[in-house]
Amino acid sequence: MKKILVASSALVAIAFAGQASASEPIKLSVGGYMEQWAGFSDEDTTASGGRKNAFQSDTEVHFKGSTTLDNGIEIGAVIELEGETSSDQIDEQYLYINGGFGQFKLGKDDSAADDMGITAPAVGPVGVNDGDMDQWSNVYLIDTVRSSGDQNRATYYTPVFGGFRAGVSFADDSGKNGTFNKTVTTSGTSTTVGGLSSDTSGAGDNIISAGLEFNRDFGGVSLGLSAVGENQGEGNWYGLGTNVGFGNFTVGGSYGHTDDDYGLSSRDTAGQDLDAFDIGVSYAMDAAAVSLTYGYEDFGTGDVSAVDLGLRYALGAGVSWRSSVFWFDQENDTTADNDGYGVVTGLRLDF
């Protein structure tokens, strides 16, 4: 895999090497989003004896820029800055190269499997699949696209052929952020601070991700299909997804399986096979959209079911009001069972 990526990178370099460039210098534009939510939840068991929280927020500022070389190849950069965090201030940062050969990306980014995976439609702020339900209640987070997340990696996407596109990513688990924490002792007191060197705390396992997707319209009916997977450590994760759109409706679902020895050093459920699926439907008309989604996962020491009713209404350009009503039921073999519900509402601003 390493040899393939090196050879591919060399071909891209040769494609535009040695040519004088009259292209414009890269100028970064500013974008991003802000989400502010207020909510209420009620459940049988909680860690603190009451609700987990009443407010959630998420803000990112994105800097993007690109230039086109004389031979038509586009080169660009993306930097995503977290608005509030206790650890890594940069969410994603990578460069990309676009051309007739497809797209190369190098830097800290999601894997091809994560980027190409299709899940059931959902328009609310909570969702049942890799959403924010565990931010409002003490519930296991259902996830059918269980990839390694943001890592320093190299990714290649093919051009689209007849609606088909493939992608492959290579990374290792030496660290997601390119930094490490170190302990400094002053006058007998130890303090953990952020380091500036590359993180070499991982086991050195390769992380190979791949995906194949199909997206096409057939006379008013749109079809999306995905097959994605990832190898990390001694195990694999893989999943399938589909969305079908007709009129104002979209119907879809996904399934994911995780081996018991996938990513043992980074997964809180290490040593357990995981099986999850979701299914849902959404309806959009003018500025409004509504969705109903169901999710389920067997996580080895129990299982969880969840339902989310989502609403999205566009108030103006880049401003939408979103709400979710959710319910869950979690059965545990080793700890107390838990079930509950919640309501979340708020605004998302895209800029």
Automatic annotation (TrEMBL):
This is Porin. InterPro entries: Gram_neg_porin_domain (IPR033900), Porin_dom_sf (IPR023614). Residues 9-325 form the Porin domain. Keywords: Signal. Residues 1-22 form the signal peptide. It comes from the Bacteria. It comes from Thalassospira xiamenensis.
